[in-house]
Each structure stands twice: as structure tokens, then as C-alpha cells.
Recover the amino acids of this structure.
């Protein structure tokens, strides 16, 4: 279980780094105020903390972990004029939990060392 959650975390790390690189945002720069997560894994406090550490970004979890239906409702609300756009709906988002990064340097240094050994 731990290996699966860590694997997902590092995949998320590489994906977000690639997204920021595509936008011309330098590595190590402040990239976002927070990452919002939901779903079953967001209920795992260790996973959320590990994600915050790996991304060096606060991670926020909503009161309801299953917000996919809420997202669909938001799109419908935008479509029918209840909300003007995604930002209008996003302003109503609330966090039930926020994890801040505590140990990113050691975490990524160890991870990159493992990758280097695996590639040799």
C-alpha cells in the first residue's frame, strides 16, 4: 500500500514539474498556492502529507472526499448561468484539512538517489 501511494505521489511530482516547465516556470520557483485533492486517497493523512512534501506545496482536502459529482454540478451550473465561470464556483470551495510541506529536500534527494542507482 505504501509503495503504491508513494508511486502515485512521485508520478504527480513529475507530472506537475512537466506542466510548469511547459508554461516556462522554472524549477524551484513558487508555482501554486495550494493543490486541492479529493477522492479515496485524500482520506489518507500520510498520503496527503507525503504529497505536500514532494510537491513542496500545501495540499488541501475538502470536507467531502467524493467531489466528482460536485464538479459535474459546477459545470452544469456554469452551463445554465448559475455561476459565471470556474473561478466563480472555485471561490466557494472550502478546505477541511490543509497539510503543509515539512521535509521536501530529504524526500526528493533520497528518491533521486534511488532512481540513479536503478539506472546504473
Amino acid at each position: 500500500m505504501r509503495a503504491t501511494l508513494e508511486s502515485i505521489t512521485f508520478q504527480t511530482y513529475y507530472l506537475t514539474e512537466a506542466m510548469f516547465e511547459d508554461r516556462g516556470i522554472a524549477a524551484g520557483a513558487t508555482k501554486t498556492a495550494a493543490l486541492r485533492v479529493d477522492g479515496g486517497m485524500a482520506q489518507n493523512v500520510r498520503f496527503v502529507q507525503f504529497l505536500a512534501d514532494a510537491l513542496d506545496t500545501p495540499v488541501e482536502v475538502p470536507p467531502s472526499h467524493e467531489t466528482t459529482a460536485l464538479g459535474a454540478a459546477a459545470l452544469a451550473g456554469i452551463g445554465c448561468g448559475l455561476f459565471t465561470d470556474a473561478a466563480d464556483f472555485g471561490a466557494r470551495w472550502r478546505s477541511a484539512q490543509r497539510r503543509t510541506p515539512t521535509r521536501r529536500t530529504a524526500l526528493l534527494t533520497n528518491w533521486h538517489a534511488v532512481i540513479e542507482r536503478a539506472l546504473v
Remarks:
- The beta strands are 35-36, 59-61, 97-99.
- The mean pLDDT is 84.
- The longest strand covers residues 59-61.
- The first helix runs from residue 2 to 22.
